[in-house]
Design brief:
Blueprint (H helix, E strand, L loop, with lengths): L28 E2 L2 H7 L9 E7 L1 E2 L11 E2 L5 H14 L3 H4 L3 E8 L7 H14 L2 E11 L6 H9 L4 E7 L3 H6 L6 H14 L3 E8 L6 H13 L4 E6 L7 H7 L9 H16 L4 E5 L2 E4 L6 H7 L3 E5 L4 E4 L2 E5 L5 E5 L2 H12 L4 E3 H7 L2 H16 L3 E3 L3 E4 L1 H5 L1 H17 L2
Parallel strand pairs: 2-5, 2-12, 3-4, 5-6, 6-7, 7-8, 8-9
Antiparallel strand pairs: 1-15, 9-11, 10-11, 13-14, 14-15, 16-18, 17-18
Helix pairs in contact: 2-4, 4-5, 8-10, 14-16
Length: 422
């Protein structure tokens, strides 16, 4: 409903956009490496656990990217050995010895830039130090141009069962804008071959709202995803990040980008409607549509439901047993302690990344007064067509999914203002 375009001044396009609100009311607490290492020798609690491994290297830089990465200018032998050594080091701790992990996620950068023997070094160290659950998920982010059957064979031999491929769009114009390798037909053919060879889920990223993108182009992206029967498609609206080539081109007036909420909304709606048309896909979370009985995306479920994410690699961040960790370099990490409020609203924000928000889970997180404030806001959102309240849940409409990160941010601010202004 186009009337909902005036509900918020600006659309928050990612989960990270809505963070940081708690710090306005409750200051964060510092932690130390010593605190972290002592915690690793205590028997871990029973929360779900994931490992995030960061590879800060790419062989080609996307125009929109400002992530912790750089273009390869030499061998990755030493970095591969560093990652293996990290697993060997932490594998000796009580935390690793007594934990069963549900998820391993290799992000970047582009984790498939490693050569097969480098992958073998890393993955062998994981096999020797990590105990996985029976229904584990093991993901590598990747691009199509640096995947080979030799690399895939190594990965599958060590249990990798999910690939997240950075496609962004199948449109020829869009691929040129994003600085992607290969044209539309080559991309489709490579995805077909990848699906036939790889024993696991093949998922893709779609980024919509590049300059002058048409509704026909975004609908075609959805149709190709369905035709290829891909396990899921993440779908994000293009964000301009400081430090990216795109931001520099905008500043130099080589590229013209205008905030157009109506266009953003229409592209989102047309992509979602086309994906959902035959009922073979469903909305899994705010930025992902998955094939029925396909991608389960356990990584985001662990992260967004209060689980641990153990970070390994330069640029990796996560939280382990209530201690935040960010790996600034091989030699230095930054540690913080989650206060009760930070942990509480991080979990609430995580639950609100999904289209169905169970009341039972919200009540487990919030106090009685806080839930009352939460419910007040949800009833306001329902009046605006953003959700439907049911006996046991609040179910977001497609408009609610579009504004989902705003709802999470807005409701967190509302509850904290009520609590701290009593």
């Amino acid at each position: 409903m186009l009337k909902n375009l005036t509900l918020f001044e600006k659309r928050l396009k990612s989960h990270h956009d809505s963070g940081g609100i708690v710090n306005k009311f409750v200051p964060g607490e510092k932690a130390t490496q010593e605190t972290f290492e002592k915690m690793l020798e205590i028997k871990p609690d029973d929360r779900k656990k994931a490992i995030y491994v960061h590879t800060p290297y790419c062989d080609k830089i996307c125009s929109f990217c400002n992530l912790n990465r750089k273009q390869i200018d030499g061998s990755l032998d030493s970095y591969a050995q560093y990652i293996a050594d990290e697993f060997n080091k932490y594998g000796k701790t009580t935390y690793f010895k007594e934990s069963t992990f549900d998820v391993i996620f290799f992000g970047g950068g582009t984790p498939t830039v490693y050569k097969p023997h480098q992958l073998e070094i890393i993955l062998k160290s994981i096999r020797e130090n990590v105990k996985l659950s029976e229904s584990y998920e093991f993901t590598f982010e990747t691009t199509l141009h640096n995947l080979t059957e030799e690399k895939l064979t190594v990965m599958m031999n060590y249990g990798v069962n999910r690939l997240s491929v950075g496609i962004q769009t199948f449109s020829e114009r869009g691929r040129k804008f994003y600085n992607r390798t290969y044209g539309k037909e080559e991309v489709i053919e490579r995805l077909r071959k990848l699906k036939a060879f790889f024993k696991g889920d093949v998922c893709v990223d779609i980024i919509y709202n590049f300059p002058d993108q048409t509704l026909e182009e975004v609908i075609e992206d959805a149709r190709i995803v369905k035709e290829l029967e891909l396990s899921s498609a993440s779908f994000y609206s293009l964000m301009v990040h400081n430090g990216s080539k795109l931001s520099q081109d905008i500043e130099a007036e080589k590229v013209k980008m205008e905030e157009d909420m109506k266009k953003d909304y229409l592209l989102f709606q047309h992509f979602a409607e086309e994906m959902l048309r035959e009922d073979s896909y469903h909305i899994l979370e705010l930025t992902k549509i998955a094939r029925n009985s396909g991608d389960n995306y356990q990584y985001i479920k662990v992260r967004n439901n209060g689980g641990d994410t153990f970070p390994i690699g330069v640029g990796a961040g996560g939280s382990v047993q209530g201690i935040g960790v960010f790996r600034m370099s091989k030699e230095m990490s930054f540690y913080s302690k989650q206060t009760e409020y930070h942990e509480k609203f991080s979990r609430l924000s995580g639950i609100m990344q999904f289209p169905v928000i169970p009341k039972k889970l919200v009540k487990e997180i919030l106090s009685a007064d806080e839930f009352m404030y939460f419910d007040e806001k949800m009833k306001d959102y329902e009046k605006n067509g953003l959700l439907v309240e049911k006996e046991e849940s609040y179910d977001l409409t497609k408009d609610g999914v579009f504004w989902g990160n705003n709802l999470s941010s807005d409701i967190t601010l509302y509850i904290l203002e009520k609590e701290f202004n009593k």
